[in-house]
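From: lab user (bench 3)
To: helpdesk
Subject: output format question, protein + C2E

Hello, I'm new to running complex predictions and I'm not sure whether the block I got back is the full result or only part of it. Here's what I submitted:
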Amino acid sequence: RAKADGRGTYRFFETGMDARAQARRLLEMDLRAALQRDEFEVYYQPIRDVASGRVVAFEALLRWNHPQRGLIAPISFIPLAEETGLIVQLGEFVLRSACTDAATWPDDVDVAVNLSPVQFKSPNLIASVTEALAASGLDARRLELEITESVLLQNSEATLTTLHELRAMGVRISLDDFGTGYSSLSYLRSFPFDKIKIDRSFVSELATREDSMAIIRAVTGLGRSLGIVTTAEGVENDAQLELLRREGCTQAQGYLFSKPRPASDVAMMLGGPRLRASA
Ligand code: C2E
Ligand code: MG
Ligand code: MG
Ligand code: MG
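Helpdesk reply: Thanks, we reran it on our side. This is the complete output you should expect:
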């Protein structure tokens, strides 16, 4: 109907909201059921030392094996899991799985786990990390927790306390997606980071944009002077890897080496120095 009177428009809008709210409720129910039905699985993506080419760690990346919809990426369900608080349970599942899997890997291969800001602020965090380490027997020094800048925005006192508690346990902290948020340099001074992960957007434009190159150079230089490891995300080709090596970036992660894969593929991913993702 072409007639756009105020009331019609309003009703249309309201109907749209209803549909959206309903889809949200369905997804929420689906998420809860999925947790019960064990439909979540942790995939792993290798992170290599740029100088030696050795796999030094794997990042744990959550996937949902949906019975009807197939494999679902985190972008499609993590925001709702955060809104509903389900992320705390999901996050505990990832922590437990990642520590249990990593305990079976060689001792010099670490595991990196993403923490949602909601999970980071939950009073359970220290207990869940302690439990995951104890249950798996994984050395705390092999666990890295990745947080984003949004965690650092509010209540810096509490954040700082949590970060220090984690580090006192031996766990290392990475600042994920660096360069996409507020990227205040004062964060690097105020909070105890072991690693900076340079966001994929800078890496993808490395060869074509002078300014991306300049940013990578600045961040790797900063890392070097502050004694913080730098990891480039989203490395997809040799040209990017070569530029990163030249700038002295410590580690690289990306499809050039492998896409994230199930835990059963870790041994294979540890194999050759230049295994490529073929699927
Ligand atoms: P992230 O932590 O920055 O993870 C890196 C993302 O980049 C992953 O997407 C990975 O598959 C993708 N990636 C890696 N190399 C390449 C590449 O060469 N090219 C391209 N185009 N992409 C690459 P994924 O697995 O879809 O995860 C997306 C985001 O979801 C993650 O970004 C992280 O923020 C969040 N996430 C994933 N797993 C978890 C989890 O267990 N808990 C929480 N809280 N968040 C998670
Ligand atoms: Mg990450
Ligand atoms: Mg990242
Ligand atoms: Mg990223």
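A quick orientation on your result: Strands lie at 40-49, 55-66, 70-72, 110-114, 143-147, 172-178, 195-198, 229-232, 251-253, 261-262. Let us know if anything else is unclear.
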